Amino acid sequence: MPTWLRDAVPFAIALLLAAALYLLRQPEWSLAVLALTLIAAFAYNQWMLARLTSWAALPSRRDLTRRGVSGASWSEAFERLSRGYNTLKSESEALRTELHSVHTAVDKIEDALVVLDKYSHIEWSNQQAQELFGFIGSAGLHRPIHHFLRDPRFSDLLDNQFHAKAGHVQTMQISLHNRPGAIFQLQLISGEHGQQLLIARDITRQAKLDAVKSDFIANISHEIRTPLTVVSGYTETLLDLDLEKGEQRKHLETIRKQSQTMQNLVADLLTLSSLEHSIDDKTETNVDVTRLFADIEQEARALSAGQHLIQFKVEHPASIRCSADEFASAVRNLVSNAIRYTPKGGQVNVSFKFDHRVGRISVEDSGVGIAPEHIPRLTERFYRVDRGRSRGSGGTGLGLAIVKRIANRHQMELEIKSRVGEGSTFSLVIPAGRILFPQSDASRQLALA
Are residues 99 and 125 in the same domain? Predict the structure, then answer.
């Protein structure tokens, strides 16, 4: 039966009763029945409206039940409202859960994200943005973003973005006073209805890598330019002029020397690249220190050509567990540096000893020494205290960088001590676990145990 028909039944009965009373010549009772019926219907409807209004005021805290509802129309209305509200509530809870998951995921993103309205006021931000720009939770909502990013260039960026089409992107780099030393990249992306998305990304590491790359290219260009200029100049001279054999030989010798300089530079670059990209792929063996010193001493005396007093001394015969080629290269670089930077008649002492549970290969020279402010940077690639003197000595500027990386790969340390005018001492400090003494040296084997 239709709802309206069921609701009409009580009124039909009341009308029939009133008609019967009227026919029985009881008009007063007939009117009374009609009046009571209308009053009851009006009161019931008002009560149902009051219940509905009360529920609508706080639907989340009050239940909409059919208890006490007898009218078919009201019963069906309450049932449909209750079912619809419960469905909407379930969907709202699901949406709230999903939104919370999205916010949690966005808060884990390393980039700072801020949504701006068309007036550049903050509409939403993730946790990284709040920490970066200095506002907490809803404290920054609806406030202009330039209250937190006070940079004239960023203000210009906002002005340029105001009339931009959706999808338009502007980028800039910026430093923040609360993050000293850090560099951030800001991206401002235009959206629909004038909204904008601000993305702040920490690019400090990338900026440093770019700077290192630029310095590296500049240094390589600088180091190669001089020998190339010399080679090119002397080659043109040999081609254009008819020189005597002695003069030709002198020019060819200069070309050979400069070519060797470039070869040494390339060889050191390849060595350094190999060390930086190799982690554990090295073959280790036991290197006898006495034999290693004997080989390097011959090379050192040939490099010195009798201009220096050179002494090698092994105080405690032992072997070092290491990559033979790499370790020899490290010691060779220290010795050749000492000879190159020590004036004629100076002294270079190379020694190995075991002291305080570590081994120590020390290369001591009587050169001009190094000022304290330069020492921390000596192992940087191409760093030179005196570029003119370094280039004149034939060095590539990569020797100590190579030594440092070899030491790190072998859990060793490179110590540098120097005083201006008194010379320098470069030492490789070797952990006890890499030192093997002869079986006859029982006391030292016991010290290592």
Answer: no
Which pLDDT value is given to residue 30? 85
SS3 label, residue 64: coil
CATH of the domain at 287: 3.30.565.10
- The CATH number linked to 261 is 1.10.287.130
Residues 295 and 409 in one domain: yes
Residue 272's domain spans which residues? 207-276
- pTM, whole model, 2 decimals? 0.55
On the CB side of 351, CA atoms within 13 Å amount to 10
Residue 78 identity (one-letter amino acid): F
Whether 59 and 162 map to the same domain: the answer is: no
Task: Residue 143: name the closest of 125, 169, 164 by CA.
Answer: 125
Domain count, the chain: 4
Amino acid at the residue 336: S
Instruction: Return d(Cα 422, Cα 405) in angstroms, integer.
Output: 27
Q: Cβ(154)–Cβ(146) under 8 Å? A: yes
Q: Which of 228, 232, 221 is nearest to 261 (CA)?
A: 228
Give me the sign of the Cα torsion angle 270, 271, 276, 279.
positive
- Residues 245-267 have pLDDT tens digits of 888 888 888 888 788 777 777 87
